[in-house]
Design a protein that fits this description.
The structure holds two protein chains of two kinds. By secondary structure, chain A is an alpha/beta fold. In chain A, about 40% of the residues lie in helices and about 20% in strands. Chain B contains no helices and nine strands. The chains are: A alpha/beta, B mainly beta.
């Protein structure tokens, strides 16, 4: 079927957005309540119940904004927030946000409930009640133009820049032509490409944002003497960060970049966006740029991505909480070796078995299927990774204020 | 023997990426290439780069049509292009890595 005509039933949300999954999130607000939250999730044993949380006792603004964005996420229909009782991050306050969004909501303090067992028993009961209510969620038609898709790469090898990211880039071009929204990240993997980046800006404001964000990342890399390139990348044939950057940048496709999103910020309109997940300067010691792939996926999901794409040459097994993760490799050997984990083989482009357009179209069909309910490999296996670190970020791109007189 | 292949991404590139393990002898070029075949001069692992023409000391290394680094010695056409003969313009650490494994050698941890 023509991609343009594909329709499926999504889950209507009060804020007007449409979800592709209808999940209950069990959220812990401090490490001390994480065991109880994870046990509630494990014992409930349902694909639509999953756990996320933040370990810190301090209410790190960045981390709390991220939790709020997950509560508001269109794939989430209900929220149970579990706190210990003495931490800064307040479960009641988070549950109230879910209530404002018209979602199922509940919260508890383990200290008040009387400890581990009582809290787990109560929690399991609550999430099952929520699932029952969620069966009645209003379904509405949805098409590709309603989708927000995120992409990042990890475990890159020489195929990522030749096939994996290139196919994603071509798919992004199609998605945007059909009126959808695409987000790509990893500004630390754009080092060396400032001219290419700014030349793609949709307007003056976007150009300023891209330039500021690029130099912020470059300053950071210089300061810590560490660029986003690792021994495995070098062993695989990549010689410099510039070479890796170009391979990573390929996943942005060729459309104009509308601007820079900050973590937990929703794209103001459709089109292509760069996500800046690097810390902002004055508290930069709070968290490094890319601690791991799941942190990057969580950043994309916090911006409202329905589905996230993880491009990997060397292979990966992770999935994600909140949004399905489609794992793509440009390396057919990796695909064959890790077939239970990898969703899509873009390596057929390199072997000459299909064209770039054919590959991008088959990826688009796979994504539409996932949106309509087909489980990804990581969903089938039960992968629900998440990672929310301490970090400091401004809410908007911190452009230097222009002199007005 | 399986045909040896490499991929040139952009017409401007002076390097191509090995799609198979390469041994001395002719290599078929795929992608945006003006030459069909290049003679490789040494063993090159899959995913690594070969020089498509003679490259001078301090000349730009070009892949994807953009500068990805600079030659730290002259490189003959058909030779392996990697950490031993090129460097990043930004990342000084990558000039201190083991050329085969990519492992860091610039910090003595103990």
């Amino acid at each position: 079927m023509e991609l343009n005509n594909m329709r499926w039933q999504g889950f209507a949300r009060k804020n007007g957005r449409i979800g592709i999954r209808n999940k209950v999130l069990v959220i812990y607000t401090v490490e001390c309540s994480s065991f109880v939250a994870k046990e509630i999730t494990r014992i409930s044993d349902n694909v639509d119940i999953e756990c996320v949380g933040f370990s810190g006792c301090t209410d790190n603004e960045y981390a709390v904004r991220m939790l709020i964005s997950l509560i508001r996420h269109p794939n989430v229909g209900g929220v149970l927030v579990v706190g210990l009782g003495c931490e800064y991050v307040q479960p009641e306050w988070l549950a109230n946000i879910a209530a404002e969004e018209g979602k199922q909501h509940a919260w508890m303090f383990i200290q008040t409930e009387g400890g581990t067992k009582k809290s787990i028993n109560k929690g399991v009961m609550i999430v099952h009640e929520m699932l029952d209510v969620l069966k009645e969620t209003l379904r509405v038609p949805m098409s590709i133009s309603d989708l927000v898709i995120g992409a990042e790469c990890g475990g890159s090898d020489y195929t990522s820049g030749l096939a994996g990211n290139v196919v994603v880039g071509r798919f992004y071009d199609m998605l945007i032509e059909m009126g959808g929204t695409a987000i790509f990240e990893e500004i630390v993997e754009a080092i060396g490409l400032v001219d290419l980046l700014t030349a793609r800006a949709a307007n003056e404001q976007a150009r300023d944002e891209l330039q500021y964000t690029y130099y912020k990342a470059l300053d950071y890399c210089k300061a810590v003497r560490q660029y986003s390139v690792s021994p495995g990348n070098f062993a695989g044939g990549l010689s410099t960060i510039e070479e890796k950057s170009m391979g990573a940048f390929a996943k942005s496709g060729s459309k104009p970049i509308e601007g820079v999103l900050k973590v937990a910020g929703n794209p103001p309109h459709e089109g292509l966006w760069l996500l800046d997940s690097t810390p902002d300067p004055h508290w930069m010691q709070f968290g490094i740029t890319n601690p791991n792939d799941n942190e990057g996926l969580m950043d994309l999901i916090s911006c409202g991505c329905h589905i996230v794409l993880l491009v990997t040459g060397r292979g990966n097994v992770v999935g994600s909480a909140v949004s399905p993760c489609v794992k793509i490799t440009g390396n057919s050997i990796t695909y064959a070796r890790m077939k239970d984990d990898m969703d899509f083989d873009a390596g057929l482009v390199l072997s000459g078995d299909c064209t770039l357009n054919e590959s991008a179209q088959s990826l688009a069909r796979m994504i539409a299927n996932v949106a309509s309910g087909t489980l990804t490999k990581s969903e089938v296996l039960g992968h629900k990774e998440y990672f929310i670190p301490y970090k400091y970020q401004e809410k908007q791109v911190a452009l230097p204020s222009k002199c007005t007189h | 023997m399986e045909q040896q292949m490499a991929f040139q991404i952009n017409f401007r590139d002076n390097v191509a990426t090995a799609l198979t393990e390469l041994n001395k002898g002719p290599v078929v070029l795929r992608g945006d290439s003006l030459q069909n075949v290049v003679d490789v001069k040494e063993h090159v692992l899959v995913g690594h780069k070969i020089a498509l023409r003679d490259i001078d000391y301090d000349e730009d290394i070009i892949k994807y049509g953009i500068v990805i680094g600079r030659a730290t010695q002259s490189i003959a056409k058909g030779k392996w292009v990697h950490l031993h003969c090129m460097r990043s313009i930004y990342d000084e650490r990558s000039s201190h890595l083991d050329i085969v494994t990519g492992k860091p050698k610039d910090i003595k941890y103990e």
